[in-house]
Amino acid sequence: MEETPPCLPAKTDLAIIGAGPHALTLVTHLLQKRQTMWGKFLVFDKSGRWMSRWQNQFAALEIPHLRSPAVHHPDPNPFALRKFAESRPHEFFPPYDLPGTRLFDDFCQDVIRRYSLQQQVIPLGVTRIEPLPHLFRPRLRLWLQDGKSIIARRVVLATGSSKLQLPNWVNQITSGYPEHKLCHSSSVDLRRLCLTGERVLIVGGGLTSGHLAVGAISRGAKVDLMIRRHLQEKLFDAEPGWLGPKYLKGFFAEQDYQKRFATILQARNGGSMTPAMGMQLRREVRSGNLRINENCQVVMAQWMGEKWRVQCSDGSQHEYSRIWLSTGTKFDVTSEALLQEVLEVYPIKIVNGLPVLDEYLRVPGCELFLMGGLAALQVGPTARNLSGARMASEKIVPAIVKPSMALSQLRSA
Ligand SMILES: Cc1cc2nc3c(=O)[nH]c(=O)nc-3n(C[C@H](O)[C@H](O)[C@H](O)COP(=O)(O)OP(=O)(O)OC[C@H]3O[C@@H](n4cnc5c(N)ncnc54)[C@H](O)[C@@H]3O)c2cc1C
């Protein structure tokens, strides 16, 4: 049921766009530092709920547990999830006690309740951020999905904004085809599918490919997994050294942002599976349900009316009933529609799509803060992850709670 948006004030001190894990982490850190901020901020998300996209993604791919260990979550106390789960030890998964999906969701709901945030999400999307420049009191006007607007002194963008990465051959398909026969992993919902007798091609070597392959096989499909490199097995997206000074010290000392960008790419090193998923896939290979084609790419795909005919870089040709592109997402500030007007008024250095923000993750000169993958040049390779949400919050919160950090104060000083 659609919720009716509440009557909004004309102005707010702080507006947060998005109600995912990053926004939730920011809010808990903010309230922990300054309880008086309660009621002084507004959170916008079309869904009207906290964590809606996160929950949908985990449900659609039937992901049983997180990839990140139990210290990563939206509560400021790293041990809070452990404490919450004292009576649920069986909901942690090996090898490093990874929290189960249900446990993590219940914990986040507990965080939301403890901080009295249940009613805080306004069920409206933000459609436009209009800068209102002023020498001493610059503001940002947020235009909302219902056509109304609100003026904010500070804004945090926590929309998880990323653009889908699609291989080039997709744009070269000339014939029309049903949308669900070729789609990005983010629009696959395993729960609705029966795949008996189908052969599915999954492109990409990340953990999402693994979840999709396991899900498709359990629904009766035979699967080909095509990976342009070899199948990489890693426990985490990036090495744990990226969570602290071990690697971050050198990263922050680097003043050449091109080099920082290259380091981020290298640290994440494309998609990888967990060793546990690798083992599960090898079992499916032995059972004859899965083929893994490494060092191979699609060269061309043609929709033949009922099936795809696919030519591969190793010269082979195959037929598939559907293709899923598990080719990831890319963070690019220039393709984020919400930011365009801000970037026109406050031009900013951009390195391969990533903005160079100030130390508080602000667009320089403007009270607009960015969280998630877009803040990677200032947060490091795990910026998009739960650990990145904590690191970003630790940078943003001081600028929000200390009036001396406000740009208007700095300007008039
Ligand atoms: C399948 C999957 C599994 C993952 N597992 C892990 C893991 O185990 N550990 C880990 O650390 N990381 C994991 N990640 C990476 C990362 O933690 C998640 O992607 C996480 O959801 C990012 O949080 P977020 O708050 O930035 O974005 P999101 O969860 O995407 O939330 C953003 C919210 O913003 C809202 N929004 C978007 N645009 C607007 C707008 N214009 N106006 C208002 N609201 C808007 C959306 O509705 C959404 O609710 C995973 C990612 C995926 C895809």
The SS-based structural class is alpha/beta
Radius of gyration over C-alpha positions, nearest whole angstrom: 22 Å
Low-confidence stretches: none
User: In CATH, what is the class of the largest domain?
Assistant: Alpha Beta
Q: Fraction of residues in helices?
A: 25-40%
Q: Please give the domain count.
A: 2
CATH architecture assignment name of the largest domain: 3-Layer(bba) Sandwich
What is the averaged pLDDT score? Answer: 94
Present as ligands are:
flavin-adenine dinucleotide
Question: What fraction of residues sit in β-strands?
Answer: 15-25%
Alpha carbon gap, first and last residue: 50 Å
What is the third-level CATH name, the topology of the largest domain? FAD/NAD(P)-binding domain
Assigned CATH superfamily of the largest domain? FAD/NAD(P)-binding domain
| Most strands sheet | 7 strands, mixed
Morphology call? globular
The total beta strand count reads 21
Give the helix tally.
Answer: 13
